[in-house]
Write a structure and sequence with these properties.
- It is built from 14 helices and 16 strands.
- With 472 residues, the protein is of the alpha/beta class.
- It folds into two domains: 23-224 and 322-472, Rossmann fold; 225-320, no CATH class.
Length: 472
């Protein structure tokens, strides 16, 4: 039986189809952002925001901020940046670490926080995609409850899929030198992602990516990371020499939470250490302890055993006014403002509440399968990719000793001996390079777990020199 439609019905169905096409195109399209609430005047750089659907039926929608190089975007490198956590928004990178923005005020006063621009943005010499990954991070979301759950291996695949799709939509960047970059927990996933990209290149996946290497800051790398906390604490003067010697003798170098001490003296020593670590800032041992905002952007706390007192229980909260805890709080007020979300082209109703770091919530939806990425470094080194590994030298959770240890374990010959690197005539840190094209650098003068957050000028100079193939 043939169905007959009136001309008006055909016209109506055609209009519905057109509206659906328009809605789908709008859903998929990225948008240029010229103005941001809290920033005076037009943005002095090119900012694009958008979503890319990944995974089965694109049920996971990953949000990103893209800032084009302010120098020579046609030829400057392209960087894909992942903030740690997992569950920490890539907006951290935009406003607190390596991006062009910063909050002018130090403490929330009830009005919309105000933004300024910094001269030390890595976008001065590179185009950077700041990706909200995994799903349930920042403004990224899943369209179903099932899509909100993700395994770390799949999260890496989603990032690779994102990159391929993004380059299809931005073919003008497909020939630019490409690097992955990130900090903290990203030290576990980025080497895996770089491996996926490398494998895809060898398989001929399109578009071809001009992969050159990767950068990692204070990267979580292997499960024995905490065993290097004790020499760090001893060197920082947090534990005395006699206690340190007793720990070495009785605990045999094992200090992890999952380690069961074999003697009472080791247990007693570890309990003493926990007491000495009360109200010590995990991310920066020289800074005040300011509550939950000082938690490491990693899937575990840096304490050894026992319970650390909260900010409310301590007597030092007055030391924190105007400090990182307040500056971090500014982003929560700013990003949850409806005017800001409209300007950023955030899809209404997709995220109930934006959080700078959603670590507690993401623990229920994110599955860890491996906490060791050393084998990926070995394989990537064999393929000739460049890497820069840097450490803020006052970070307790991923101390520079542990990073130096796993790099040394790769057993590559030294091509540039341990030496100072300087900025503005001052020592900014120490560095060493290896025959596998890996450079290790410490950032001193008070750099913590997220080194660029404390030392923007120094880290910008470090990046600019390295990305240009110049010695630090």
């Amino acid at each position: 039986m043939k169905l007959k439609y009136s001309q008006s019905m055909v016209h109506y169905l055609f209009l519905v189809l057109i509206l659906l096409v328009v809605q789908i195109s709008q859903l998929q399209a990225a948008a240029t952002v010229k103005y941001l609430p809290g920033f005076e005047g037009p943005l002095p750089f090119h900012l694009e925001t958008g979503y890319v659907g990944v995974g089965e039926e694109e049920k996971r929608q990953l949000f990103y901020y893209f800032i084009k190089s302010e120098s020579d975007p046609e030829n400057d490198p392209l960087i894909l940046w992942l903030t740690g956590g997992p569950g920490c928004s890539s907006f951290n990178g935009v406003v607190y670490e390596i991006g062009p923005l910063y909050y002018k005020q130090k403490k929330y006063n009830g009005s919309l926080p105000t933004l300024g621009v910094t001269p030390y943005s890595w976008t001065k010499v590179a185009s950077i995609i700041f990706l909200e990954q995994p799903v349930n991070t920042g403004f990224s979301y899943g369209t179903t409850l099932e899509a909100m759950n993700v395994i770390d291996v799949d999260a890496c695949k989603h990032t690779y899929e994102f990159l391929l799709k993004w380059l299809v939509d931005h073919p003008e960047f497909s020939s630019n030198n490409f690097y992955m970059a990130g900090d903290s927990y990203s030290g576990i996933v980025i080497p895996r992602i770089v491996q996926l990209i490398s494998d895809g290149i060898e398989a001929g996946n399109k578009p071809l990516i001009n992969l050159k290497g990767y950068l990692l800051g204070n990267p979580l790398t292997f499960t024995e990371e905490k065993n290097f906390m004790m020499p760090f604490l001893h060197g920082m003067g947090i534990i005395p020499s006699d206690l340190y010697q007793s720990l070495v003798q009785n605990c045999k170098g094992e200090y992890r939470e999952d380690f069961a001490p074999t003697n009472a003296q080791c247990t007693q020593n570890l309990n003493i250490v926990d007491e000495l670590l009360e109200n010590i800032n995990d991310q920066h041992v020289l800074e005040p302890s300011c509550g939950s905002e000082t938690e490491l952007r990693m899937p575990f706390p840096s304490k050894l055993r026992g319970r650390r007192r909260s900010l409310e229980e301590s007597s030092i909260s007055s030391k924190c006014y105007g400090h990182l805890v307040d500056r971090h709080d500014l982003s929560n007020h700013w990003a949850n403002d409806p005017r800001v979300q409209k300007a950023l082209n955030v899809r209404k109703g997709t995220v109930d509440h934006w959080a700078r770091c959603r670590q507690n919530g993401i623990k229920e939806t994110y599955t860890f399968t491996s906490m060791d990425s050393i084998s990926y470094h070995v394989n990537l080194s064999s393929k000739g990719y460049r890497s820069l590994i840097y450490s803020g030298d006052h970070d307790m959770g991923v101390p520079f000793q542990s990073t130096e240890a796993w790099i040394t374990s790769l057993n590559y010959s030294i091509t540039d001996s341990w030496r100072q690197w300087t900025v503005s005539g001052q020592v900014a840190g120490y560095t060493r390079s290896y025959s596998n094209k890996m450079t290790f650098a410490t950032v001193k003068q008070g750099a913590g777990h997220v080194a660029p957050e404390y030392k923007r000028e120094e880290c910008f100079n470090m990046f600019k020199r390295w990305i240009s193939h110049n010695p630090l």
